[in-house]
Structures are given as C-alpha cells and as structure tokens.
Amino acid sequence: MQYISTRGEAPPLGFMDVTLAGLARDGGLYVPETWPGLDAATIAGFAGRPYAEVFAEVVMPFVGDQLAATDLARMAREAYDSFRHPAVVPLVQVAPSTFVLELFHGPTLAFKDLAMQVLSRLMDHALMARGERSTIVVATSGDTGGAAVEAFRGSAQADLFVLFPQGRISDVQRRMMTTAAADNVHALAIEGTFDDCQAIVKGLFNDHPFRDGVRLSGVNSINFARLVAQVVYYFAAAAALGAPHRKVAFTVPTGNFGDVFSGYVAARMGLPVDKLLVATNVNDILARTLATGTYQVRDVVPTSSPSMDIQVSSNFERLLFEACERDPKPVRAAMASLARSQSFSVTARSLGAMRALFSADRAAEEEVAATIRTVRREAGYLVDPHTAVALAVAEKEPRDPSVPMVVLSTAHPAKFPDAVEAACGIRPALPDWLADLGGRTEHSTVLPADQSAVARYIQSHSRAASAGAGAAA
After folding, report:
1. Which of 102-106, 444-448, 468-472 has the lowest mean pLDDT?
2. What are phi and psi of 361, to 5 degrees?
3. Which GO terms describe its molecular function (predicted)?
4. H or E stretch including 316?
5. Which of 201, 242, 336, 388 gives 20 to 30 Å between its CA and that of 213?
6. Predicted pLDDT at 111
7. Is residue 21 packed enough to be buried (19+ CB in 10 Å), middle (13-18) or exposed (0-12)?
8. Pairing mode, if any, of strands 3-5 and 30-32?
C-alpha cells in the first residue's frame, strides 16, 4: 500500500513513512493510492468482538507489509486496555432510532484518545527501529492536545510541542495539557485562534530546512494514521446495529472534518453508510460549503463547543481530492485560492459527488443549550456541548426512521462543566481518577501568533534538533 499527496507533487510513501511525516512535502495530505475493501461477512463478524480485534482487522489493509500483524494487534490491545469501558465505544439509545456513540472513555475523556493512543505506539515503534528521534508539533482546539500529551509524555524518541489558543478552551482541556510532568512535553499558549495555531503548524511543515532540522512530525488529523484509527468505531457501531444487513447513518460534530472523513473512508471500504451528517456550530464553513459550493473563511466566533471553533477545515482537502476524481490540479488551484483570498469554489460536479453521501447543518448557541436540557429531561442522559450540536442537527434532518442514526459523542460532559451547568443546572464532575486535576501544577509558555517565535522555541527545546546540530558539528 502506497500513499499519494492530494496535491500530486510529493513522492509516494509507505504507511510508516506517512505516519512519521504527517504532512506531504508539497503541502498536501496523504491518501492511499487505492481504497481497500472489506466484504459483508467480515463486517457482520465485527458484532460482539473485542474492539482491539476489530481495530486490527480494519487497519491492517492500510499498513500492508510495513508492520507485522502481530505487532499491530499488540499495540491495539495495549492502547485500549486503558479505556474505562469494556466495549471501548459503547452505544446508548436516547430516542427512537437515535443512538449516541460514546467515544470518551479514554484517558483524556475525548474521542482523540482512540487514535492517539495507537499513533504514539506506531511512531515509537518506527523511530526506535530506525534509531531516530522526532519533534512532534500539534495544533489543538482543545482535545487533540490533551490526547497527544497523554499518549506521548515520557517518550524517549519524541518531543511534543502543543499549540493551543490562549483563553479559548475549557479549563479542563487546558489542564490536561499543562499539568503533564514530563520533560518532553511543551504546552504553548498562542495569542490567537485555533486557525492561527493550525496555520503556524502548516507553515513549519512547509519550511523544509526547519522541518528537516528538527525531524518534524505531526499528529493532527492531517496525519492519515489518525484518520484510519477513527474508521474503526464506524464499523464497530454499525455492526452492533445490524450492518451490513441494514444501513446506518451518522451525525458527526466536526470543525476540522477529520472525524467525519473517517466515516467516508469506512463507506469507501464497504460499510453501508446511509448518510454522513456534518454538524457544525455557528462557525459553519462546512455547512455553508456543502450548501453553496463556496468555501469562504470568516472570523472565528467563540462558542460553548470550542473544539469546533474552526474556520479552516484541513481535511476537507481530502474530500475535495476524491470529489475531483483524484485530479490534484483543481486541488492545488483551490488551495492557492484559499491562501490568496481566503476562499475557493467547488464545481457543480464535485459538489454533487459530495452531496451523494454528505449533508450538513448548524446549531446556534441557544439550540445547543436547549438540546442539553431536553436530552437530560427526556432521556435522563447528560451530554457535552459538542454532542449537543450533533443531536440538534440530527433532529433537523429528514430521515427514514428505519435507519438508525448514530450521533458521535466526542467528549465527556465534565470537560465542559460551565457550559453544561449553564444549560441545565447540573455541573458534571470529573471521574474519580481525574478528581485532582484542578490542583495539579500547570506549566505553559505564552507565545505570540508568530511562526518565527514558535520555531525559535522549538529549536531551542527539541532533542532531535540538538542531535542534528551535534551531528553537523
């Protein structure tokens, strides 16, 4: 299995090289040359099986001969043994034909743990085999950073630099990044938005002398290994509800488009997905694009669902590549237009291809709060604001009641206690094993939204950069 760039100007790479590289050298995102498939009997057989076993079977076709099947299976077992629910991703019914898929039973109470816990093991394995170190730089709107810190803290092979927008994430999200007592972890509070953080990270990847000098790697959802790991819970949930003998629809709260693109990958592999409903808050660039065909960046508006306060959805480039029938030329043109004028247009043909599987809508702040109250009152179930966005959007969508709708719950409500309490009067508590989080000592560095300032900090703290300087000397 080889991987190609969405912009068509980077050499094909194998799975482990793509995992370590993150972003392609031409600025594009990696996708497999061909999509592997799973037959109906294999999908049906996922029902009731341990999650780690389903993971190994879904992901192995993407790995190819780059890793032994026994090693991948071991990494999956180790990763998911730490989760606090035996099903790893349990389904909870909250209304007729509506199910919540709980993706928050990992160590940082967010769906990012499901991919990050495996990704850290994959990267450590590859780096140790090569005798190399890596510098991981990640931008986060809240949950990715905490999951990365938990997964990579203490790594002998990698240093982790997490960029988060100062004052724009919840206290729990921030503390999960700033309280790690590990020398290889650096929490950088950027004076700007998540889009500023993401732009800095992309700029660092596109600065090839810097990238090579610090052996830069990324664990945002630009990294294809992240997306592949997330594909697994689509298969697990659908099989539990009767797939492949019945179709299943999914509603996904998303800002960066990575989580819902994993659902697209599942569909390409043969999962009978009826619909992928993209749920956004008022930062609704994805809903606007699918409605009008115009991708137009606007200012980011802070909301109660901060992980979705995004206006530049990186993974949309992967869908654009597929909708353009894998022709990189229109993708390059669109990305150049985005850099130049903060917008681009999707052709009618490509937009039609997207709408064949995707639809989208947004939920305003008052709708989110009302949904938290309603679900608590009618189902006795407490949801975080991101899950509430998805439930609110799912309610608006006309649908066949015979098709189960799975709403992805991407975070535990205790990660956003202020917003939940303001909506319904109940303040969700952290699990006992995280009860002391508020008392832990925080360590972070405030930096301006400036690529040069971040680059200087990384160069002075990266062990890979030091090793490179020593070798050059």
Report:
1. 468-472
2. -160, 170
3. threonine synthase activity
4. helix 316-323
5. 336
6. 95
7. buried
8. antiparallel
Q: Among residues 112, 202, 247, 275, which one is catalytic?
A: 112
441: left (phi over 0), alpha (psi -120 to 50) or beta: beta
State the SS3 of 53-65.
HHHHHHHHHHHHH
At 367 the three-state DSSP class reads: helix
pLDDT of residue 256: 86
- Helix (H/G/I), strand (E/B), else coil: 213: helix
**Residue 80: CB atoms within 10 Å:** 24
Q: Is 362 helix (H, G, I), strand (E, B) or coil?
A: strand
| Cα–Cα separations (whole angstroms), residue 326 to 32, 240, 319, 321 | 11, 33, 9, 5
Q: Helix or strand or coil: residue 406?
A: strand
Contact 220, 141 (CB under 8 A): no
Cα 17 to the center of its chain, rounded Å: 20
- Rounded Cα distance, 22 and 204, in Å: 12
> Closest Cα to residue 157, out of 187, 182, 188, 123?
123
Q: CB pairs under 8 A, 24+ apart, for 178-184? A: 178/442, 178/443, 178/444, 179/437, 179/440, 179/441, 179/442, 179/443, 180/149, 180/150, 180/153, 180/443, 182/149, 182/153, 182/154, 184/152, 184/153, 184/154, 184/155, 184/158, 184/159, 184/160, 184/463
* pLDDT over 60 (residue 260): yes
Kindly report the number of other CB atoms within 10 A of residue 118's CB atom: 25
Q: One fold for both 91-109+224-424 and 133-220+443-473?
A: yes
> Which positions ≥6 away from 311 have C-beta within 8 Å?
195, 283, 285, 297, 298, 299, 300
Rounded distance between C-alpha atoms, residue 166 and residue 192, angstroms: 7
471 pLDDT higher than 80? no
Name the architecture of domain 91-109+224-424.
Answer: 3-Layer(aba) Sandwich (3.40)
The answer to whether 279 and 388 are in contact (CB under 8 A) is: no
For the chain, the structural domain boundaries read 91-109+224-424, 133-220+443-473
pLDDT digits (tens, 9 = 90+) for 16-74: 999 998 889 999 999 999 999 999 999 999 999 999 999 999 999 999 999 999 999 99
Q: Show the CA angle centred on residue 373, arms to residues 367 and 374, nearest 5°.
A: 85
Q: What pairs with residue 278 in β-bridges?
A: 252, 360
| Among 320, 348, 322, 319, CA closest to 333 | 320
User: Is residue 307 packed enough to be buried (19+ CB in 10 Å), middle (13-18) or exposed (0-12)?
Assistant: buried
Catalytic residue flag (residue 275):
no
- Domain spanning 133-220+443-473 has what CATH number? 3.40.50.1100
